[in-house]
Structure formats: C-alpha cells, structure tokens
Design a protein that fits this description.
The protein is an alpha/beta fold. It is built from 14 helices and 13 strands. The chain has helices at 12-25, 51-54, 56-66, 86-106, 122-134, 158-167, 189-208, 211-214, 229-242, 244-247, 255-259, 271-281, 301-306, 313-329; strands at residues 3-9, 27-32, 35-40, 44-46, 70-75, 111-115, 140-144, 146-147, 150-151, 170-174, 219-222, 263-265, 286-287. The chain has an eight-stranded parallel beta sheet with strand order 1-5-6-7-10-11-12-13. A three-stranded antiparallel beta sheet has the order 2-3-4, covered by helices on one side. Helix 1 (12-25) runs antiparallel to helix 4 (86-106), helix 4 (86-106) runs parallel beside helix 5 and helix 5 (122-134) runs parallel beside helix 6.
Length: 335
Amino acid sequence: MSIDLHAHCVPNGLIDLLRSDGGSFGIEVAEDGKGVTALFDGRRRVGPVRADLIDTSLRLKTMDDTGVDVQVLSSWVDLTGYELEPEAGATFARRSNEVMAEEVAAHPDRFEMLATVPLQHGELAAAELEYAVSELGAVGVEMCTTIDGAALADSDLEAFWAKAEELRCIVLLHPHMPLIGIDLSAKMLHNMVGRPLESTIAIGRLMVDGLFDRYPDLTMCMVHGGGALPYQVGRIQRGFEGIPHVVATDMKSTPLEVVAKLYFDTVVFTPASLRFLIDFAGADHVVLGSDYPFPMGDLDPITTLDTVPDLTADERTAILDDNAKRLISQVRRTG
C-alpha cells in the first residue's frame, strides 16, 4: 500500500456551504466563468478555487495512474479562515470538517482526513480537534505556519497543543503567507522560496520557545521536506551550544533531539535531496507526499522516490506505507 500524507482537497460540499451560508461566517462568495472566489472578513480574497481541488473522479484517476492507494486529505490552506471572528471561525471549521468527512466516507478505502481548526482561538481549536478526531474520524490536523499574520509561537495555543498531544494525532505544519513584508511577488518566488523558508522559521521559533519540551509526544510532520531545516539545523544546534544564554533560555532539548522527533514529507523533487533527507531524518521519519493537485507539487511521488540512489526495499516500504500507517494507528479517539 502507498499513503500520500500531503494532498489537498476542497469538497463539493464546502463550495455549496459557501454559496448558501458564507455570509453567516463573514465570507462573501462570487462566481464567474473562472469559478468560485471567496472574500474572508472583507480582507483576504481567495480563488478562484481550482477545479482539480474539487473533482473527485480526477483525483482518483490520478491516484490510480501514479500508484497512490490512499490520500490523507487536508484543506486548501487558503480556506482555513483564521481571520474570521473566533466563534464564526469555529463554526466554519466545524462545517468544513463535516463536509470533508463526507468526502472521505464516500471513498473510505481511498481517503483519510486531516481537520482544520480555528487557530485564532486556542481553546476553540482544541475543542474542534477533539470533535474532528473522535467523532468524524480525522487522523490529525493541518495547521498553517502563521495565524492571520501572527507567528504560532506568539499565539496562545497551549490548549490546542495539549489536545494534539493527548490525541496523539498528526499535526501537518503547512506554510501559508510566506515572509510577510518581503517582496516575493516575482516569478513564483513566494512559493518556490518563501514557503519552505516560512516553515523553517515557524519550526525554529517553536523549537526555541520550548514547545517540544512542553509537549514531548507531539507528532508533527513538516511539508516540503522540512524546508531548510534538515540542511541548517546544525546552525541552530550551534546557537544552542555556543550562545545558550540567548538561544536556550526556554528549551531543554537540543535542536538535534527535537528534529529527531519530526516527520518530513518527500516533496523535495530531486533524488539527491531526497536521499539526503532520508539519511538525515531516517527512513522511519519520512512519509510520501505529493501536494496534490498543485503544479508546484510532486504529482508522481512514487516515481520520484524510486529514483533515489541506493534506496533499499526497507526504506521504500517505510516511506510508502509503514510510517504513515503507524502514525494513523497511534491516534487516540476519546469519543
């Protein structure tokens, strides 16, 4: 079996929800020949929503064509709605998770789901995570690296982190608004360069803030191969050792000890980079990812994996199947 842990989806039910009830959440919807566009809280325009995010038949065909047995579906991050008022955001997340659960239920042998939660309010996010995991069958949560522009480490998310650790569910860390204040508008730099760096900055902040000391059993997976972290963690380790009165005031575990607990997807594209990632993290901490259906994704991830130099059969099985299956099996449902 092969399990793709990084794949995005906008269920048809969510589009219907936005059309009928978007205004009640603070979301304005417009439609034209190009598709559906949504305006969140009068500030952030999203869309048009790509047709291949919605088309389940195309998704299943692509999976069949590329040998992917199961996709773990997560929302398109642009639809997380963190800028909504907390109660509206919580209601929107609940409805979004319910329609995602319907998508999974229609093809239970092909899909699992990651929830979306209202990170603008830590306690509401914790409550929604418990509901999504225990009642809807989610195997974890996708969260962005920023919350309406605020750093995760600067946000009151203790209730959420505690719940994620308690449930032993997957936390998929995904960039959203790369490096606000830096002009990356030219030639897709915001995606090619900004997003991996945004993930690196977010995990670095969480690390030195002591998150992984407070919640040592947190199961976090970084997309895009962890951004620059695998290559530059030695620099963070050097700061921890050489300038501890600045770097290590809030953390006890070393950066290398923290990184050893993280998981990383395979979306790094080149065989040499993926070989380095496997050697760095260990084959037991790398999971298959595609970033479906976006053109900056690896839409044939198994072929990419099979081009890795000196890939062993055990490494291949771990990355394709065993690691994701292990993470899914450890999820604790309280309902």
